[in-house]
């Protein structure tokens, strides 16, 4: 006996089967849940695009797990291959569902309401008798149904009506808007840019790549920087009496090609817009003006950016020109120092009530021939020297004839400057998504039939209908509708079922 | 600036509301357990009283701080409590006539208020990042969405409990469309007490409740299918509002931070929540996914709602963190 073994599925079969499986709702549900689980992972691990420092800290704290986490891309979940893979699959499944549904929707919209149905098989069915002419009844039915925005078709004594295609239309719009959303995201990612820059009061910044402290450009952005210049005339921060900031306000002027094009205040939640460029108030800080001289020769003079670290303002000045060794200063800034014995001073009021710079002088080799942060000293070849405090206007004389002066106090403002050409499309997609969601959730497809036949001098009117969704609401609608078509009392009523 | 008298009034009324809610909850459970109609009416009366006091507290807080009263975690939780109670009173009690759910709804309100006390901060002004009309829109939408997800969770849990009781009693409903078959006549006679108020019985309830074999408190809950349907319709509204809240949040982020989406923990978890409930709605629209499996998804969804709110605010640092007050 010859046994026929099932032939191994050809690659085309496998592909077809996979494709069919990918398009099922069950797959979509599972993919959605997996996407949710995958997205949540990123909230448990520090993300490199958000904070490189936090990632490094985590790696230092978990040396054993770090390589595993690195391999799995847990420090950049939303850019990881497996995350992309999940949403690529979801996207394929979405498109796979949508295409046949578009076709079906298009056909359903153009097709006439279904005329060849058996009326007594519907969930709602009733028969009434009237002495009115069948044509008269059907004309009234037509008017009623049209007023209730049903699509109506008639063949002889039978009228079919249908309503609720907004459900499928809304659902299609809702799902399609995700593709539009993706397009908007891609446009922004490819042609947009985001940069951050700290600008000190009285200084200017030009929109060119070298001037940014942080810059991220889209792959297709190229080098299309506008060259627009921004001058920060004044920065103000105001406080509530309890020390909570009330408002950060940067008074800026914008120059395009040397010509002033904008003069306005940038505050949080109210960015400045110029062309496709938007300037956001991001953060701020103190920039004490410090001067370092040796033997009457000024070696360093200017506002120095202090960063806030855990509530303390820290800054660094590096002066390699001093003789015989380099000089470095690590400094703390206090707006209103409160000194308690045996503890580090802390800030009282956030306003500069009694501004003080505390410094620790270092002597040795700054190693400026190597790349290093402007906000840190490389301590390996430095040894601590003098310690001191400077009030506004004070000068301290240090060994080697070095003098340091705290001559003035300024503030700096940190701006986020961005251009996102996909933003409008994203907004449109968001709008379409919401517009589509309402009928997708709340519209219901329902069908109604009316048949009027003359017999023995009376007209027998059959009214039937059923709803695919929201069956409870249809109950009332059907009753009202029947009442409008034939106001007379019911002779025989079918029992609603299902 | 902060008006100290109004702030004090608000705090006092908050406590009053919490106590009254707790009393109302106890009475509702008494009503459910002993089917005493008067107790149910008293509980409802207390719930209304508590809601009015609570509403005054919330309003006074807003007036005291000179802004909308949902600017920090305490106010957010408090408002969720108020919306839970109002949703129960206006929709579940008045429109649907489901007084049996009262104890659970008031219990949720009590939990919301009690949890608010753990994150209490005195009435105060807003930090600059929150000072935007988007606070009114985005945050209020998030509060409403969370509240309704909470309500849907109550329905889901009751549905699962009732379905289990029905299964145990061997009365599995096949395709039942009409609900409210919870007045078991036999028990009514044996207890000799007043039954549920007439308006609790849906007019089209089958005369002989097919779940008369479900005994005890379970018998007084609506049939499982009805509870499931209620959970489903609540999630539909909540999902719509949540979708809006997430989108409005993205628009606000674009205004305030210059990016619309940054996978900040709050954004991530709001998205995770959204995705889970999207999964739920798809499950409901699919034949073959039984109500029970959908209910499990809905419970996971509510866990995500809680995580989005509590864990992300208090535990995970991010732009939406309220860790520092």
- Sheet/helix structural class of chain B: mainly alpha
Largest interface: A-B, 53 and 51 residues
Nearest-integer average pLDDT of chain A: 88
The arrangement of helices and strands of chain B along the chain is: HHHHHHHHH
Largest sheet of chain A: 7 strands, antiparallel
Backbone CA Rg of chain A: 37 Å
- Helix and strand content put the structural class of chain A at alpha+beta
Pick out the low-confidence regions of chain B: 172-211
How many helical elements of chain B? 9
Quaternary form: heterodimer
Count of separate structural domains of chain A: 4
Work out the number of β strands of chain A. 24
Average residue-wise pLDDT of chain B: 83
Note the overall shape of chain A. Answer: elongated
- Unreliable sequence segments of chain A: 490-498
Number of helices of chain A: 9
What is the number of E strands of chain B? 0
Global geometry of chain B:
flat
Distance between the termini of chain B: 18 Å
Overall description:
The complex is a heterodimer of chains A (498) and B (325). Chain A is an alpha+beta fold and 498 residues long. Chain A folds into four domains: 11-105, no CATH class; 112-164 and 444-493, TATA-Binding Protein; 190-281 and 415-420, no CATH class; 286-411, no CATH class. Chain A is built from nine helices and 24 strands. In chain A, strands 4, 6, 10, 11, 12, 20 and 21 form a seven-stranded antiparallel β-sheet that branches. A six-stranded antiparallel β-sheet of chain A has the order 2-3-22-23-1-24, covered by helices on one side. In chain A, a hairpin with a 3-residue loop joins strand 20 and strand 21. Residues 490-498 of chain A have low confidence and may be disordered. Chain B is mostly helical and 325 residues long. Chain B has nine helices and no strands. Mean pLDDT of chain B is 83; it is low at 172-211. Classes of the chains: A alpha+beta (498), B mainly alpha (325).
């Amino acid at each position: 006996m010859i046994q026929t073994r099932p032939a191994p599925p050809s690659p085309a079969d496998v592909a077809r089967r996979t494709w069919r499986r990918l398009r099922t709702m069950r797959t979509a549900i599972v993919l959605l849940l997996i996407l949710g689980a995958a997205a949540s992972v990123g909230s448990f691990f520090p993300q490199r695009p958000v904070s490189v420092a936090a990632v490094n800290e985590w790696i230092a704290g978990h040396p054993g797990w770090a390589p595993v986490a690195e391999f799995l891309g847990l420090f950049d979940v939303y850019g990881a291959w497996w995350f992309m893979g999940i949403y690529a699959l979801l996207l394929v499944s979405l498109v796979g569902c949508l295409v046949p549904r578009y076709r079906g929707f298009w056909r359903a919209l153009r097709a006439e309401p279904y005329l060849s149905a058996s009326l007594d098989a519907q969930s709602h069915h009733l028969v009434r008798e009237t002495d009115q002419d069948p044509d008269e009844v059907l004309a009234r039915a037509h008017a009623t149904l049209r007023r209730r925005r049903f699509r109506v078709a008639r063949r002889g004594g039978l009228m079919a009506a249908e309503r609720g295609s907004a459900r499928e239309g809304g659902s299609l719009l809702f799902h399609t808007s995700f593709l539009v959303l993706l397009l908007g995201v891609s446009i922004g990612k490819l042609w947009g840019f985001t940069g951050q820059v700290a600008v000190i009061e009285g200084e200017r910044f030009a929109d060119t790549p070298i001037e940014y402290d942080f810059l991220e450009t889209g792959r297709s952005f190229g080098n299309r920087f506008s060259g627009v210049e921004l001058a920060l005339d004044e920065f103000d921060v105001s406080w509530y009496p309890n020390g909570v900031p009330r408002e950060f306000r940067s008074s800026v002027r914008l120059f395009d090609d040397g010509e002033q094009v904008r003069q306005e205040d940038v505050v949080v939640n109210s960015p400045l817009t110029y062309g496709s460029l938007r300037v956001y108030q991001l953060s701020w800080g103190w920039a004490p003006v410090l001067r370092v001289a040796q033997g009457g020769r000024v070696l360093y003079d200017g506002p120095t950016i202090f960063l806030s670290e855990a509530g303390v303002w820290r800054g660094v000045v590096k002066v390699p020109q001093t003789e015989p060794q380099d000089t470095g200063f690590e400094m703390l800034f206090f707006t209103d120092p409160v000194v308690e014995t045996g503890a580090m001073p802390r800030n009282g009021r956030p306003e500069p009530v009694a501004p003080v710079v505390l410094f620790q002088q270092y002597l040795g080799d700054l190693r400026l021939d190597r790349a290093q942060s402007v906000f840190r000293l490389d301590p390996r070849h430095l040894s601590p020297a003098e310690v001191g405090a400077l009030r506004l206007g004070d000068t301290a004389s240090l060994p080697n004839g070095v003098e340091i002066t705290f001559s003035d106090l300024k503030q700096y403002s940190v701006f986020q400057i961005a251009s996102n050409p996909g933003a409008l499309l994203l907004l449109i997609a968001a709008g379409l998504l919401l517009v589509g969601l309402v009928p997708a959730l709340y519209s219901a497809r329902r069908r109604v039939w009316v048949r009027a036949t003359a017999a023995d001098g009376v007209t027998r009117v059959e009214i039937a209908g059923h709803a695919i969704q929201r069956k409870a609401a249809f109950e009332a609608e059907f009753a009202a509708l029947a009442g409008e078509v034939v106001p007379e009392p019911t002779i025989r009523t079918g029992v609603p079922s299902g | 600036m902060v008006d100290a008298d109004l702030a004090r009034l608000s705090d006092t009324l908050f406590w009053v509301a919490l106590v009254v809610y707790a009393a109302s909850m106890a009475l509702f459970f008494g009503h459910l357990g002993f089917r005493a109609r008067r107790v149910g009416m008293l509980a409802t009366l207390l719930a209304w009283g508590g809601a009015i006091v609570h509403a005054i507290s919330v309003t006074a807080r807003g007036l005291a701080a000179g802004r909308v009263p949902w600017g920090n975690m305490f106010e957010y939780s408090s408002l969720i409590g108020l919306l839970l109670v109002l949703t129960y009173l206006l929709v579940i009690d008045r429109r649907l006539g489901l007084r049996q759910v009262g104890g659970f709804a008031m219990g949720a309100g009590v939990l919301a208020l009690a949890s608010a006390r753990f994150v209490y901060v005195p009435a105060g002004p807003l930090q600059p990042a929150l000072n935007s009309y988007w606070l009114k829109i985005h945050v209020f939408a998030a509060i409403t969405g969370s509240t309704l997800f909470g309500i849907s969770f109550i329905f889901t849990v009751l549905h699962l409990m009732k379905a289990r009781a029905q299964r145990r009693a061997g009365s599995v409903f096949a395709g039942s469309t009409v609900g409210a078959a919870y007045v078991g006549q036999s028990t009514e006679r044996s207890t000799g007490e007043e039954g549920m108020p007439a308006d609790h019985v849906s007019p089209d309830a089958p005369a002989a409740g097919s779940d008369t074999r479900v005994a005890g408190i379970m018998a007084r809950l609506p049939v499982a299918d009805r509870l499931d349907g209620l959970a489903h319709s609540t999630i539909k509204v909540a999902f719509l509002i949540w979708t809006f809240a997430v989108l409005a949040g993205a628009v606000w982020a674009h205004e305030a931070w210059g990016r619309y989406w940054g996978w900040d923990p709050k954004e991530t978890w709001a998205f995770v929540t959204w995705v889970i409930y999207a999964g739920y709605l798809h499950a409901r629209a699919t034949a073959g996914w039984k109500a029970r499996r959908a209910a499990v998804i809905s419970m996971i969804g509510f866990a995500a709602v809680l995580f989005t709110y509590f864990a992300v605010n208090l535990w995970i640092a991010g732009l939406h963190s309220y860790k520092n007050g």
